[in-house]
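Example 3.
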Amino acid sequence: MRLTKQQFIDRFKPEEMVALLAAAKMSVAVEAWLFRFNSLTPDADGTTVDLTDPRTVAGLQALEMGGLISPGRAIEMLSANVSSPGGLDEHEGIARGASVRVLAPFDTSFPEPLIVESIQQSEDGSIIFILQEAGAFSAVYLEPLQ
Amino acid sequence: MTITTRDQLINAMANNSSRILIDKSASGTTASGVFRSYWRETGQPGQGAIPAAAQVCSNALVGSLQFTQQTAPSTSYIALFEYATGIPGQSIEIHDRIVHMGGLSGIVTTAQTVGINLESLLGTSNLSARIGDTNYSDISWWLEWYTNTGGTAANVTVNVTYNNGSTGNLTAISLGSSIAAARMYGLNNMIPAADSGKYIRGVNSVTLSASTGTAGNFGVTATRYRVGGFSPAANSRYTQDWAQIGLPEIANESCLFVMMLPAAASNTTIRATGKIVHG
């Protein structure tokens, strides 16, 4: 998947962008990464950033390893279907923030209703629902509550 | 014949024993407090193979400690266990690897078939003697990782058959992200309150709550604890004699291998020796 520069920047949370710019004033490596990004020119379709380009992947992983973005954010930001920071807003009729019931065989372990904190795309492209501290679930194990 | 007197034990120690020799380093990523297997580590004994379909393990497998097989009524016991680890605070254990299977995927969210039922395997590789109590209470069950799964923190639940023939789902295990090869997650402590007092006889299937993002490879393993020890200081040898370890009997065909309960998220070597006595 390809993005415009603006779409790529939108994937950073505000606090992540602040940390990135602050780090660029102290680290030549981060400054070099920003310089490369700023120097990119759009292709014919108007996009600039290829999420599958090894340099894009390595750059975000380096930011994660350097602590400028939280663990797991590189994968999240490289996902194809992210519409805003924190993931998708809705998938298969279940919206972020919705209350859901967990279905068998996980219902006995998670009997209480849980809130969908975020909807993300996994490394393999599958969509996952993050339910508070209960972790990740596929849509097939969730039922939205009215 | 069994060893029932000190004289018989001393004689066996001096004149009729097999040598334990373990020398292995560790690869991958260790997590504090999560058991790890040394089955796949290289060294001595050699690197065990990643299983596919369910397989009863025996002394013939590469990866198992070798000892002289006995003709009944003669039998075998671990009578001496000496060990050292590269970092302090490690608990090392020798288990008899009873049954294992692999090939489970970290990206499949439907139930994945395991198909292990110890009751139907008791006639294979001396399992009837190796499992201990006939109610399966001596068996430890594990999910064992062979190659890393992905970054999504999924849950996993396991459908089991209990010793009374009933079936049920264990309480889900929260796996966390990026589960590394060699980690072992115990299943016995996930028996839910509703099934208290039962013991796991078999494992039917494994279900992930979500794709982890990477297929990896993991499986189900059944073991029986035989002996263990604690290593308080790094690279220092600790010795446990027969009285300290309780002289555990080692049945013919036992597939003895090493596991560790790490106190730190650091890989470490294990060097151990000892004696399996016969009589």
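Chain A has a mean pLDDT of 85. Chain A touches chain B at residues 71-72, 75, 104-106, 108-110, 120, 122-124, 126, 128-129, 134-138, 140-141 (CB under 8 Å).
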